[in-house]
Amino acid sequence: DGGITQSPKYLFRKEGQNVTLSCEQNLNHDAMYWYRQDPGQGLRLIYYSQIVNDFQKGDIAEGYSVSREKKESFPLTVTSAQKNPTAFYLCASSIRGLNYGYTFGSGTRLTVV
Amino acid sequence: AQTVTQSQPEMSVQEAETVTLSCTYDTSENNYYLFWYKQPPSRQMILVIRQEAYKQQNATENRFSVNFQKAAKSFSLKISDSQLGDTAMYFCAFMMTSNTGNQFYFGTGTSLTVIP
Questions:
Q1: How confident is the model at residue A97 (pLDDT cuts 50, 70, 90)?
Q2: A105, B67, B84, B103: which one has the fewest Cβ atoms less than 10 Å from its Cβ?
Q3: C-alpha angle with apex A54: A51 to A57, nearest 5 degrees?
Q4: How far is CA A2 from its chain centroid?
């Protein structure tokens, strides 16, 4: 079945460590996105990529980095510069130029310990 | 800048009853799309319904329908015959297309509880 796979489902990080969240899709979608979800704040855009080897910052990119070396993959690294990384992270994808909305992954819950 | 407002943080409804979730948005764009997404306790985001701004007819998907008022910039979701499985967080979203691709803007969500 086609879809988006995020891993791991739960992730624990010590302060000062970088961690990478995986997002893989087999939908042949051009565009991929990373959102952060906090209680009462909805979804906030971290980074997005419309094509391979290209990506743009979203509203809250500070402390995060991404890469898009393959169409199927869009990993997100949460760096030690991110002051409050504990959150739920959602990856999404869409077909560029079409307006059918996003397909979402099942999310990763990151907790700093 | 585009904004999406959901003024009802929490709502509840009796099973089999009807409930309406409110959403307003602000934009100067004329061509855009509106969505309602459902996020159940599993936290998987699921598309509920989609509306093109250029269409006057309100979208309907089974028990889910919208009341789209373009001039008022209002996009409410009506759930008929509510079921226990409708218990979830519901997000209203606005999408426009720019040179850098599709841009989504989400509201802060409404937590809906269906009471048996």
A1: low
A2: B84
A3: 115
A4: 18
- For residue A92, the chain B residue with the least C-alpha distance is B45
pLDDT tens by residue, A8-24: 999 998 988 999 999 99
Contact criterion met (CB < 8 Å) for A101 and B95: yes
Of B42, B45, B101, the CB nearest to A50: B101
Identify which of A26, A94, A25, A107 has the alpha carbon closest to the alpha carbon of residue B33.
Answer: A94
Q: Which residues of B touch A107 (CB under 8 A)?
A: 43-44
Is residue A1 over pLDDT 70? no
DSSP conformation letters of chain A: ---EEEE-SEEEE-TT--EEEEEEE-S--SEEEEEEE-TTS-EEEEEEEEETTEEEE-TT-TTEEE--SBTTB--EEE-TT-S---EEEEEEEE-TT--S--EE---EEEEE-
CB B4 within 8 A of CB B73: no
B14 band by pLDDT with thresholds 50, 70 and 90: very high
Find, in chain A, the residue whose alpha carbon is nearest to that of B96. A99
Q: Are strands A87-94 and A108-112 parallel, antiparallel or unpaired?
A: antiparallel
Produce one character per residue of B86-104: b if its CB has 16 or more CB atoms within 10 Å, e if not: bbbbbbbbbbbbeeebbbb
Cα distance between residue B75 and residue B36, in whole Å: 9
Residue B106: alpha-carbon gap to chain centroid? 10
